[in-house]
Specification:
The complex is a heterodimer of chains A (323) and B (620).
Chain A (H helix, E strand, L loop, with lengths): L1 H17 L3 H11 L1 E5 L5 H8 L4 E12 L5 E11 L3 E9 L4 H14 L3 H28 L3 E5 L2 H7 L1 H13 L3 E6 L6 H6 L12 H5 L7 E5 L9 E6 L8 E6 L6 H10 L10 H10 L3 H11 L2 H8 L2 H4 L3
Parallel strand pairs in A: 2-5, 5-6
Antiparallel strand pairs in A: 1-7, 2-3, 3-4, 6-9, 7-8, 8-9
Helix pairs in contact in A: 4-5, 5-7, 6-7
Chain B lengths: L1 E6 L3 E6 L9 E4 L8 E11 L14 H8 L9 E9 L13 E2 L3 H8 L8 E6 L19 E3 L3 E3 L5 E4 L10 E4 L6 H14 L4 E5 L24 E5 L13 H11 L5 H10 L7 H16 L1 H9 L8 H21 L2 H16 L8 H8 L3 E5 L2 H28 L10 E5 L2 H4 L9 H14 L1 E7 L7 H6 L2 E4 L5 H10 L4 H6 L7 E6 L4 E7 L12 H21 L4 E2 H15 L5 H13 L3 E6 L2 E6 L1
Parallel strand pairs in B: 11-16, 11-17, 12-14, 12-15, 13-14, 15-16
Antiparallel strand pairs in B: 1-2, 2-5, 3-4, 3-6, 4-5, 7-10, 7-19, 8-9, 17-18, 18-19, 20-22, 21-22
Helix pairs in contact in B: 4-9, 4-11, 5-9, 6-8, 6-9, 7-8, 11-13
Classes of the chains: A alpha+beta (323), B alpha/beta (620).
The structure holds adenosine-5'-triphosphate (ATP) and magnesium ion (MG).
The site of magnesium ion has 2 residues of chain B, from helix 3.
Amino acid sequence: MQQELQNLNSELKEKIRSIPKRDQLLLKIKSKIGKIKVAKSLTDSEVKKLFNNKPLVGVDGSIYTYGANFPYNITFYKALAKSTTQGNLEKNRIFTPLSDSCYTEIEQYAAENKISLEAAHSKLKEETLATLEVEVAIQAIKEFGPRVLLMDGGFLRYGSLAPEKWQELKTLALQNDCIAVGVIEEIGTFEIKKILQDELPLSCKNSYDRELLFGLFSPGEWLQVYENLVLKRGYYTCFGRLALNPQACAWDFFEEHREYAEQIIDYLYTITPRQSRGIPLWIDVVDSDVRLTKNMVELLLTSSLDPELMELLLRPTRDKRDY
Amino acid sequence: MQVVGYTTQQHVFIASRKRKFNINEILVIEDDRHNNPKGEVIETQSFNRFVPLSTEKNALVDEKVLQGLRQVGFSIDEEEINLAKVRLLEELSSPVKVGVSARLPVFEEVENLFLKKRPEEGLVLGVIQGTAEIASTLPEDLRNVAPLYQKDQGILPQDGFPFIFDYAEMDSYPHIGIFGGSGSGKSYGLRVFLEEIMIKEIPTIVFDPHYEMDFSQTASGFEDKVVDFKSRFVTLMAGKDVGIDFTELSPDDLVGILKASGGNISEAMDNAVRSIFEPQKDTLASFTNRLSSLIDAFDNETEIKRLKNSDNWSKLDVREKKRYEYLEELLLKYKDKVGHASTLKGIAWRLNKLQREGIFTKDISEIENSLQQRKLVVVRGSIWLLKVFAGFIAKKLYNKRRAYRDALHTGKTGETGFPPFIIVTDEAHNFAPTGFDAPAKGVFKEIAQEGRKYGVFLILATQRPSLLDDTITAQLNTKLVFRTVRSTDIHTIKEETDITSEEGARLPYLSSGTAFISSAILGRTIAVRIRAARTTSPHSQNPFDELQEWAGNGDDKLWSVLEDYLPLSGDQIHLYHDEIQKKLEEPVDVNKIFTLLEEMESQGKVKKEDTPFGPSYHKV
Ligand SMILES: Nc1ncnc2c1ncn2[C@@H]1O[C@H](COP(=O)(O)OP(=O)(O)OP(=O)(O)O)[C@@H](O)[C@H]1O
Ligand SMILES: [Mg+2]
């Protein structure tokens, strides 16, 4: 095993080493992808002007599965929209294959997509969470009328997991002048790499954008992608680094909101602690409000389900092992 | 307020955004499955749940970030959450439901918990901590019965439920301990206790080694509602107003008091006393006479023998002969038992010391009379003297009370009536130490164990509960525990009370005058702020302030007189001594004059010259 790890280590090292030096890479990016901008902290009056007395709203979701393997488990979902002025909106759901209605849903999904029940279950889980998040965001636009809506995660995920609701959200946001932003902490795309493909050494052919962008920007720097370049269809995406952490982040906007990107990134920079992972504090605040923990879930379960049922159906097998 | 997080059958956590919790307050938890149980706040915390998060490595969030959020309406400073750990007053059969709300109780809901008695029926000792916010629901007769005191602010209004000690319950759960470190509020608390005792006219005897229990001076702030205690207590000096009747001593008593007077005595002395002393027959005079004769005999043993066998014997007159024969007789009788003259001299020295203190010149009839009149008797004296007295007095009074009760029981008549009473002492570990003997220990122990039957109770205060005899400690059914820092004492307290580990952890930090009252009468521990004392100790003045006044006054006056006499040489001081005293209108020692002049020299107010005739002092 050790030998294997050592091999892996040298392979990865080689791969990272082969990424062109910062200056070279920047040159390439500037010529092909976009302009490097420096974010600035907004003054109080600039913030006021941007928001025009409307609030900032953050949306995040949380999921916790308790129990053993399929179907002996129960999943808790929670989606939260938190406004800086009006408090929280929350949507919750419980889902378990042990309940007949849920089970039928899984069966149907499996049949439609020709996949196993387990796979259907896990796919459904993802969809359910994304749908709940979008639903709560829609409700927040209606009830809170935010100027900026921060979603925890990229737009592609919502678009593919909850397409109809997502379309509804987009329409509503555009109508209401609400700028939606998808804050991406871990870049999982390789759009940039694709464009630079020909100019990168062969060993980079499997690299993600994340590796290319690591340490590329100085704190506050971001990449304003050229107008004619479409990285994700319908969306406008920018990359950058807002804190001391060298890992780059990305932000999705609706194409229609491209003009606001710079201002919004300046605001995000303003509310991102220097010492943090590079994520706006508001996202962390929402995250801490929404997060479901083992303790909470266990408390909920033990206070509402009969102990015998718990033991019979849900006790995680791992808990029973006594080593 | 809402129940959050884990709950168990004994504890819950309650959180609130708006309200800060108060330690020891009672909350009603609205869980109808459990009949809305009540709990006491035993730990409080406030924290901002967002401040730590962005901070991975604990760095602070930059101000610009907070400002950026403030501008859109969110102030992180207001995201404070208050959390209380609450101990349920009664254990439940299953955990409290998470999420139910909690609220402050109203008077009727906690009345039974806090108030066993009304002020007229109990001792009003203080204010129950954590009841401030529900005090507005108090009925009229419970308001303003326990004003508080704060050193810099004077008298403050009662801000909560009064704590009223149900002293009648001492019949079932006797004796009280008052523990706490130096300056924690024991003496002050004892004063409050004694004031209440006097109001209820419970006969009480107080041993007061600190000369602090005097109730004639009204504390400032109470001038408009003076309770006159002057007729309810008497102060007696050990050896002056009260004493021990020598003829009533048993050999044990005598050994005990000799021990106490001189630190300790040797086994030889112990034996010697027991052989020489003739209980019930001996008066002080007969005993000391026998003792000194015996010493004489020992010292002159060979001389006596020689004289007996010499020609001179016949020349002696009758009285002298008699005397020698008596000494010879004593030697014959006691020599084996006593061994050595030095043993006897040790005894004589101790006895002499006691005699000088006046212990044997009076009896305790004054104490008995005052108790009969339901008064509080304060007996003062140095600690060693009181140790001697306490044992003797306690035993005598206890026996008297017991004889009376037993007589009542068996229907015998003729025994004079004697009331139930309380014995109080500070520094109790000196009277009944653990691991050592002391004159009062035996009787204190007996009263601790049996006193209840006869209506004799103890109130024992000490800084060092771990040094107090443990059979006694175990019998103290009510304990007032003030601030305690020493870990051995905290350990003893935890063992001897139902104080919880949370309360134990607070002991070192209690403010002066706040105590945990742990009592079998209450069935639980209550934190109480002792009320303001109505009277003040004769020496409650700060000793350094006192020193200032004292040194200032005397010296200033003397100096103003002396100044006129400068320059002064040594022999002139003797010359003018009388004159100076006259001007000063009080006697002053020549040495004192010298000392003052030296002091003034060191302060640069006087110049000193050494002359062949001694020093000479000049004006500067
Ligand atoms: N209940 C109280 N309310 C207000 N102040 C108090 C209270 N109890 C004590 N104090 C303050 O604390 C001081 C010290 O208290 P006290 O003399 O009773 O201490 P102590 O425990 O007897 O100490 P020691 O063991 O050294 O004799 C008092 O002089 C008083 O100022
Ligand atoms: Mg004291």
